[in-house]
Q: What sequence folds into this?
């Protein structure tokens, strides 16, 4: 008799837990909702913030930075150009031989180098000296198929994906480090001057012709391959967007590529949940980069983890004991979240193995695994749909969200970044949402195109289009 009572109590307890977990799940789902009307409000808010940011500094969450890129590649460029792409714990060095309208990219080579962790917190000269030495090593391997004109100086495009106050096409001061770097003596210094000093110390005769971030590089690389490219978006660990602005729209300057820094966008229309607020409070930049914290790869996995943690703590979702690793920030990375979301096995075996590998949670039921797949879907869908709304905001600012009668119109948005490239369900949701927002007629004129490695080749192309040699 006692055993029957115990079984009934267990079932009741189990049922109460499931009911509470379902309630937490449903509430989160409702808070993340992105109906089409709300997305239109987000897009309108994005456009309004872009107008405000262009009109004057400090009036908008969007910095709308002048990139000083007023010469985008045309396809006529020729010659040998180098690129240095520094944006994280690795950097890449490329060289390209451009063959003009007919030869295009005749030949290219690339190498990737890991930065020793101690240099990420060392001094400016130590970091740039290390980079210069690796660059010297790469130049030494310059072989057949690469031609520098007699007496010509090598020119470099420098992709530096940290916040910079741009002063010209080839100069800019570092505002602050991100991504684990902390080199105090480099802040407020011109990063091109610092790199040039190191090049000189290594005896490398090279001129930095262009300083850009990865978004501007992606736009330049995209435009070189396809003249219809008018905007670029990065959807990877972080997020940003750039576009070509018409001359009359910029009180500060003439026609120019504008770096929106849209990761810092925020609006009352964004569906921000308690989990997003907690993530923001735990971050190094509280109150900043709100849009980025909802849509980019660095954060999506951690949002899922935070919801699971609450379900474990308040509803015993994984049993009587809350798995300790569930409380570790960023332990669930977005690539693992993507693998669970894409799991098509009959028993969701990938979800089961990821839960065990990452959190040490074993013997999960099929129902629990299915809830986790749904959680991943909610977080990824919200991110993809908001990304689409952001792109609509940019298209509206450019006047590309309507079809003008008698005008042949085609607008290409070049998109790069691991989130867009590898997270298939995110990518397809973004594209279908943008089509829905634009409507059938306009959707035919807008193309979302993957720009693989845009930032590296783009920097070399911008070095070419801003070369000191007029004949290039």
A:
């Amino acid at each position: 008799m006692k055993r029957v009572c115990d079984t009934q109590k267990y079932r009741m307890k189990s049922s109460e837990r499931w009911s509470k977990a379902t309630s937490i799940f449903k509430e989160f789902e409702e808070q993340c909702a992105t109906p089409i009307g709300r997305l239109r409000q987000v897009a309108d808010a994005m456009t309004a913030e872009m107008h405000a940011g262009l009109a004057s500094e400090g009036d908008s969450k969007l910095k709308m930075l002048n990139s000083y890129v007023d010469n985008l590649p045309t396809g006529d460029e020729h010659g040998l150009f180098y690129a240095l792409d520094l944006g994280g714990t690795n950097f890449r060095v490329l060289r390209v031989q451009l063959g003009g309208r007919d030869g295009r990219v005749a030949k290219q080579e690339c190498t990737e180098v890991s930065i020793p962790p101690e240099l990420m917190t060392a001094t400016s000269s130590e970091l740039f000296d290390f980079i210069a030495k690796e660059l010297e090593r790469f130049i030494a391997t310059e072989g057949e198929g690469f031609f520098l004109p007699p007496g010509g100086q090598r020119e470099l495009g420098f992709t530096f994906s940290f916040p910079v106050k741009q002063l010209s096409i080839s100069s800019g001061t570092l505002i602050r480090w991100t991504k684990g770097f902390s080199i105090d003596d480099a802040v407020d210094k011109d990063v091109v001057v610092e790199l040039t000093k190191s090049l000189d110390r290594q005896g490398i005769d090279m001129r930095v012709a262009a300083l850009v971030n990865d978004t501007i590089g992606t736009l330049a690389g995209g435009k070189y391959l396809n003249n219809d490219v008018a905007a670029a978006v990065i959807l990877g660990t972080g997020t940003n967007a750039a576009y070509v602005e018409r001359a009359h729209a910029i009180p500060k300057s003439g026609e120019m590529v504008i770096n929106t820094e849209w990761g810092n966008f925020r609006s009352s229309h964004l569906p921000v949940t308690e989990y997003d607020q907690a993530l923001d409070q735990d971050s190094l930049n509280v109150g900043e980069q709100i849009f980025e914290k909802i849509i980019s790869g660095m954060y999506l996995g951690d949002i899922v983890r935070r919801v699971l943690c609450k379900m474990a703590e308040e509803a015993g979702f994984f049993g009587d004991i809350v798995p300790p690793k569930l409380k570790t920030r960023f332990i669930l990375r977005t690539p693992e979240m993507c693998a669970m979301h894409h799991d098509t096995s009959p028993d969701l075996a990938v979800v089961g193995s990821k839960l065990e590998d990452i959190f040490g949670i074993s013997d999960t039921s099929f129902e629990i695994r299915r809830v986790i797949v749904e959680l991943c879907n909610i977080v990824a869908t919200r991110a993809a749909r908001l990304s689409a709304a952001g792109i609509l905001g940019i298209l509206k600012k450019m006047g590309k969200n309507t079809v003008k009668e008698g005008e042949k119109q085609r607008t290409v948005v070049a998109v790069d970044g691991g989130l867009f490239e590898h997270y298939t369900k995110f990518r397809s949701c973004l594209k279908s949402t943008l089509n829905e927002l634009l409507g059938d007629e306009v959707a035919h004129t807008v193309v979302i195109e993957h720009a693989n490695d845009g930032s590296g080749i783009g920097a070399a192309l911008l070095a070419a289009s801003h070369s000191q040699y007029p004949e290039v």
About this structure: The mean pLDDT is 91.
